[in-house]
Amino acid sequence: MNIRRLFVAMTMLIIPSVAIADNENVSTFTLDNGMQAVVIEDHRAPVVTHMVWYKVGAADEAPGKSGIAHFLEHLLFKGTDKMAAGEFSQIVAANGGSENAFTNQDYTGYFQRIAADRLPLMMELEADRMQGLKLTEAEVLPERDVIIEERNSRTESNPGALFSEHRTALMFDNHPYGIPVIGWMHEIAQLSREDALEFYKTYYAPNNAILIVAGDVEPDHVKELAQKYYGPLTPSTAIPERIRPIEPPHRAAVRTIFEDPRVRQPYVIRNYAATNRKAGDQKEAAALTMFVELFGGSGVTSFMGQRMQLDKKVSINQAAFYEGVSYDPHSLGIYAVPAPGVGLTALEAELDATIDAFLQEGVDVDHLARLKTQIAASEIYALDDQSGLARRYGEALTAGLTIADVQGWADALQAVTPDDIMNAARNVLNNKASVTGWLVADKESAK
Amino acid sequence: MIRIFLSLIIFVVTAFPSFAEVKIQEVTSPNGIKAWLVSEPSIPIIAFDIAFRGGASLDSDDKSGATYLMAATLEEGTGDMDAAAFLRASESLAARFGFSASRDSVSITAEVLKSNATEALDLLKQAITKPAFNEVAVDRVKMQILSSLASDETDPDAIAAKAMRELSFPNHPYARAKEGTIETVQSLTPDDVNVAHQNAMALDRIFIGVVGDVTADELGPMLDTLLGDLPATGAPMPTKTPFGATGGTTVVEFETPQAQALWAQAGLDRHDPDFFAAYVMNRILGGGGFTSRLTEEVREKRGLTYGVYSFIASGDFGDYIGGSVASANGRIKEALDVIRAEWVRMADGGVTADELDAAKTYLTGAYPLRFDGNSQIAGILAGMQSQELPIEYINTRNDQVNAVTIEDVSRVAKRLLKPDELRFVVVGKPEGVSSTD
Questions:
Q1: Interatomic CA distance for residues B106 and B227, integer angstroms
Q2: Could you tell me which chain B residue has the CA closest to the CA of A383?
Q3: What is the pLDDT at residue A444?
Q4: CB B304 within 8 A of CB B313
Q5: pLDDT band at residue B291, thresholds of 50, 70 and 90?
Q6: What is the pLDDT of residues B309-336, one digit of tens each?
Q7: Nearest one of A98, A15, A78, A93 to A371, comparing CA atoms
Q8: Do B306 and A384 touch (CB under 8 A)?
């Protein structure tokens, strides 16, 4: 049994995501106004996924305005010059489409899944709200209450989420990745219509957006439609350069104990500062990806699972995780959930011993071979997941990667050697650049 | 300028393109095992979805959680292999297996490569027909389930669901969590898990969907190899039970900034002649998306919640109509008042022609979007069989939605929605809301 409940937000896939094998299905173009487009063909069903991703996220917010990127994402469903509030969603629904939107540290995205012949209408609607948003106080204020309730649901009601927010804040001394995407409650409560419109005018422009269309479409036709609907939009000359405050070197291990009486299952979790996939240079990130898979990626066959869960019986669940796709460097993490009767002091000691043992013993080449088999297979399985492919391109391109990087990722993973993995592991497992947290109901009982 | 868009909407009320023809074949294996197959050779993979009716509802009260534990332990070792050896073997084949139990079924899913499908299915066969269920593995999985059950004790969603289950289906398996209780799970033994396996996984209750690069001729022998060793019959099914809660409010005090509320009342059977009318009615009332009445009134106009939904839950052994909302303790009362008022408005007044048209175009247009990949389609095929829907259902389903009239919705709303019989469960410190009994 693979339990993921506690860690849904941070656990990566068992098999790392990779580019598809058949790159002939993917094509790209850029409009004269700077809007980049990716078309992924999948003709099995007359359905299309239409997405617009903006290269702006929570990490681009001004100090004191946390949550404005996400708040604006909600407000994009209000009216424009042409549309009444809520009409966008009514039209999508009346056309049998499903839709949603999402915000992260590095991107904000909007998508619809709909019958393929409705693509022109979706483009017309999405182009309209890229620059035509109109907001009234009567719409903005209830939506701010919605977001306060969203934060209540996601974070305040969940000690694990509060703990994660606290640890993430400790991981970044200077970089805005330390601030939660949804925003701090006291700052959300102060966000205004003017804040939202200023953020919108600064960042929402065709030359800061990426169009992704996946499904039963022909690239030439998508290009014609994109020129018709998105082509007339005016590019901005004032999009701020994407330079966030850089982290200084970390010089001391940070520890924290988070107490919440609602906690019934304590655990220990540690994050290390880690590099990210960089355009044209994914080697280190590929080695880290293979490291987390070998060390803690697959339940009982991983190095952690074999030793901590099966042999020493100190944990009931344990894993390593790493998300290499981010605009700036982020982190790599490990966690363990104690077996009954095991205190967190003993568990953490065994976690450290497990790291030492891996660094001593090195890579199990059979395990590495199995992993590479799975990666090759996942290129085939990925063809069956149209929306997943579309997301993969959106996440990568808004993190500063190129289409070539996305398509080269599978090869980068296949090229990783045992030496690469051990070097990357030694490099990243630096306690002086780590944050270790305990989540407990109360300090004394969890030791 | 709104007119431009309106002109665009008007034509959509006419036909949607018929979606890629989902051509289902009924395959019967040489030994008589039936499956529904969609042959889809464009990607060299095969997806299986195998459902056994009964699921956690087959557990007796004192062994509650046994079926859930059994399903979770299927991948933890077989006659020939321990848990790690089994997982290593599946990794080597790049096969993806899933094992789970719900209140109505045990479900096994598999995605395998065409190139090594025989080996992958041989491996899966060992998990299905020769699981070891040794004490070490059973204990390991028990610890994981117990950890999750312990966390449920302080999770507002789980607390509300427990209270509502017990009120809605007293003295029936539906009153229990599929995972069991901390007490019952602690007491479960490998023998109990073996019994649950014999009870739940038999050929008299199996529903199979297969989609991918395989022909009917190839599939028959595969099914016999994979499943032929299962017993012919399993445990008797529980009987269907009527909804048991009365109208009123139950407050469960819990220290949390946001109150979590559920509500429920009697529902209708999946085969009720009014099912489609009820389904369309629920879409308008509170069925997801940004456009329902509940979302409009509770979220968009008043900002009282992030999410409010109503739903029709028609299970194999019990039915209800319900919903959920979460609002700050000081605002939940207003949210519940609005929801109750919407229940009354729908029961008394039905829907408008515009609402009905919008719901139909959404429901009929969104239906093809579900056929989003081989494993999703395999799941739909198994689900159709377990719901006893005809094999041509996919092609007639939208016609049944479109046949619903405004009078049908009014009649079914009047018949089904009973504002006075709504039972609310509220977990938190809700201001102005208290238990009525």
A1: 14
A2: B43
A3: 81
A4: no
A5: confident
A6: 999 999 999 999 999 999 999 999 999 9
A7: A15
A8: no
Residue appearing with tokens 């990716």? A38
Strand residues in A241-305 grouped as ranges (E): 254-259, 267-274
Q: Collect all residues with Cβ–Cβ distance below 8 Å to A146 and sequence separation of at least 6.
A: A74, B299, B303, B305, B306
Distances (CA, A) of B218 to A162, B27, B390: 52, 10, 24
Residues 6+ apart with CB under 8 A from A175: A59, A244, A245, A246, A247, A328
ipTM: 0.91
Q: For residue A22, is pLDDT > 70? A: no
**What's the average model confidence in pLDDT over A300-327?**
97
**Residue A150 sits at the chain B interface (C-beta within 8 Å):** yes
Which of these CATH numbers, 3.30.420.40, 3.30.830.10, 1.25.40.20, 3.40.50.20, describes A247-446?
Answer: 3.30.830.10
Superfamily per CATH, domain B248-428: Metalloenzyme, LuxS/M16 peptidase-like (3.30.830.10)
CB contact under 8 A, A98 and B366: yes
Does A145 contact B9 at a Cβ distance shorter than 8 Å? no
Cβ atoms of A65 and A191 closer than 8 Å? yes
Calpha distance B280→B408 (Å, rounded): 10
Active site residue A73: yes
pLDDT in tens, A417-445: 999 999 999 999 999 999 999 999 998 87
Tokens representing residue B114 in the block: 């065409």
Which CATH code, of 3.40.50.1100, 3.30.830.10, 3.40.50.1240, 3.40.50.300, is assigned to B25-227? 3.30.830.10
Please say if the pLDDT value at position B255 is more than 60.
yes
Assign domain A34-229 to a CATH class: alpha beta
